[in-house]
Design goal:
By secondary structure, the protein is an alpha/beta fold. It is built from seven helices and eight strands.
Length: 316
Amino acid sequence: MGTPGRYHSLAVSLATSTGGRCLSFRYRLAPQNPFPAALLDALVCYLSLLYPPPGSFHEAVPASSIVFAGDSAGACLALALVQLLLFSQTARVHFHGRVVSLPLPSGSAVLSAGTDFTLALPSWKKFASNDIFFDTWSMLEPGYTPCAIWPTVPPRGHPYCEIGMMDHPLVAPLMAVNWRGAPPMWFAGGQERFADSAKVVAEQAARQGVSVRYEEYEAMPHDFPIMMLNWPWANTGDWPQSRKCLRNWVKACTSFGQGQKLQDVGAVLYTTDGEDRLLEVEELTGLTFAEVQRLIREKQAEWKAWTPQLASKSIL
């Protein structure tokens, strides 16, 4: 859904507040361009910063000065790129006539990461009353008017990927088994339907020694600090929770870009009454990783290829 133009004001704000530069890029969208199109675009963008091709308007930017940031689907894509790079540390690729390595960035700072495409985790139902999402996706409803791009030919169960890929860690980073060696991570989100999918990544990474900060904002919906980018009438940027979250996002990006880890690692619940509570970052969901895998794969097995006559409504 997002475009560089829509996020221009946020990019300017992050660049101004951090004293750095912010690159927002257009990646190919589904359903016309399913996985791995968006991830490949993100990788090429990253490589273009590291190794500018001849005639570029910028000089090479070292990986130690690059922070991956994103919200919602963009946050999922940022985490998937970290996962791809983690397992490519010994790889070499050809890029504009050069053989180059794939170094890790200095950190990742993500907001309202939605990393579960099956909608299987408890927060999807638990926080329904707080959030902006309906129980079902309109394009998976019976009677959804077909068009040139949906349903696909042959039919797929999800606009982003084939059903069989919904548990792949480069599609759904919460399914990643190994985050060891990942750069520092900062997460923030509301008490929203995708909350558990972000928490699983945070707790799994923390269990494996990654420096992690997770911030949960009581009663806040998905993307609450920047909702006005998509819904100008929202005025959520004036909320105290939004101001705090954006300040901390800037702090994380600045620290990572300067080669520093966050001092206040762990997890915190920012409550509406100001009585903030520390949380155990390794136990945010109350689920074991094996339980997460089971829930995802059980729900995945219920998905069917979508046609106007066969909707997935019953699985949500």
